User: Fold this.
Amino acid sequence: MAKKTGIKIKAADVSVHYGDKQALHNVSLDIEAKTVTAFIGPSGCGKSTFLRCFNRMNDVIPSAKVSGSIQLDGAEINDAALDPVLLRAKVGMVFQKPNPFPKTIFENVAYGPRIHGLVTSRREEQDVVEDSLKKAGLWGEVSDRLHDQATALSGGQQQRLCIARAIAVNPEVLLMDEPCSALDPIATTIIEELISELQKKFTILIVTHSMQQAARVSQKTAYFHLGELVEHGTTVDIFSNPKNDQTEAYISGKIG
Amino acid sequence: MSNVVQKLGAKKRAAIIEASLKKRHAKERRLRAYGVAAIIFAIGFLVTLLSTVIGNGYTALQQTQVKIDLEIPIAKLLNDEGQFDEKRLRRYGWGSSIKKSFRTNFPDVTDRMAQRALGELVSANAGFELRQLVEAAGPEATLPTSFWVKTSDDVDMLMKGRMDRNLPEQQRRLSDQQIAWVDALVADGKIRKVFNTTFFTAADSREPESAGILGAVVGSALALMVTVILSLPLAVMAAIYLEYFAKPGKVTDFIEVNINNLAAVPSIVFGLLGLSVFLGFFGLPRSAPLVGGMVLALMTLPTIIIATRASIRAVPTSIRDAALGIGASRMQAALDHVLPLAAPGILTGTIIGLAQALGETAPLIMIGMVAFIVDVPTSVTSPATALPVQIFIWADSAERAFYERSSLAIVVLLLFLIAMNLTAVMLRRKFEKKW
Ligand SMILES: Nc1ncnc2c1ncn2[C@@H]1O[C@H](COP(=O)(O)OP(=O)(O)OP(=O)(O)O)[C@@H](O)[C@H]1O
Ligand SMILES: [Mg+2]
Assistant:
């Protein structure tokens, strides 16, 4: 078990190619346990690509080739012998666009624990669903209609449902790709509070286009530009005195 | 900084848009006219087809019967226990007693040739059917003293106006004398037309009046059942494999090209394959719906595979990603999330494939489902024929009465198709999910 300040993930020399085009250039970054790390940078700079390396979602894209090493608790995740299913049970993901299953709210949350065999009875399933929805701040709104279609929820509710679905399997790391990009300020606030709450248990990597959001929720920030990791450090440092001109320009709103 | 569009004055801009709008509307109207014309064309063909088929076939819904006065000595047919005795039943001259009774209508016909011509007016199967009727009634029953038995198909045709009385006698199947007899019977009220239940309860027969479609319907249903059971899971699995597991490359391309080709292979080739492999090599029974279904499954596979792949691809990848993201295996993502959403499309493809299979004749002929089979099949291995083959056999027969039956069989085939499509629509409604 990693300590509060221990290194949870060690990414070394990670490059990603889509066909002939290189989208990520030799990125090395250490991620601390139980910390929120924000990835910022202009559109198309490779934030999502990098994030997808941590749960090997790039495997799903036929043209994507990942090289370099990523160690989770000292174990290499790019190991061909490692079943991505095991990895993804440890590293959950919330996507940029809310993508609930077109099933009931209950089914959405229960699905993960069920396929991993983490719950053995209906009773346990219900407990996990309730607890996850509460953690995601959605319980109050949906407790009386758990068996309604998830797709009937509003965009913000769907995104919180997706978070509940991700944390229901109790992962160690949570990847969030612009989780608030489709949300109004109130829903955004709810999710940001949720992130701060989740941080006590999970290591969180979040991609965001909102500087304020990065400043509010993260302790560490990494700035990307054109597929390169330009600068990283504590959020306070990056925002108060960025060492790199590009970083400063981006943060002050001159590029991006 | 202003571009071409910005340089236009407000008036000019409006005029240009208006002018282009006219063109767009005209184009739209033209396209709509093409569409309407195409639909009218299609409906016209459909109406022509249906009216011809129904016009030719509706008369087969009726069967002409003739009244026979006959007292059946039931006591003579029973054994000591009061049950029907097989030997006695067999020995009783059913046909000849019918004929004898029938001849009493015309007592002055004594010449043997003329008597024979008279006997031809009654169905050759009348005796057999009377025996069945008596047996079904049971040994205790009090039988009526007169029965309505089927006339021969020639009389039936005459009564339905399908035989031209004005033709020279040699070109008719009934002689002038025979027609005169029939007319006399009609005048006597001894001829009637009733609903042709036989058509829906019997299998094929040499005599048109005893021939029915049930054997072929059951044969087709059994074959299609085998087809679905074999082709649907295989095709869906193949499609999932190709979409989710196959590494893109030469081998996958090769498989893909071949599947697309397979969909275009003439069906008779599948029949030959079935003949040499299923019958020749594996020694499966001839004329069996099992083999017919297997051959049709081969034919249907590519259609379902192609439809399934298309509908799998139509499912947003975000759903698959969501499943993989929480640690579902590829198979779980496919079976739990993608397939249910692709189900309506898969169903449509399956129904199209099955509809095609239902109408297929050539491959079934190759594996012997063209045989003359008088029993309704009871299992997938009993000899059977199929609807389109039955239509083919009847349409190819000399008797006019078979021809009308083949038209009615086409109607039955169409109804079968409609039933299948309705099932598909209903299932699709059930599976379709709101987004
Ligand atoms: N599936 C793909 N196939 C090919 N190229 C891709 C694919 N996904 C991303 N890319 C390319 O990789 C680069 C990085 O993309 P990525 O999605 O990681 O950017 P991003 O930083 O997340 O941008 P945004 O902030 O707009 O989401 C882009 O140039 C993009 O065109
Ligand atoms: Mg992105």
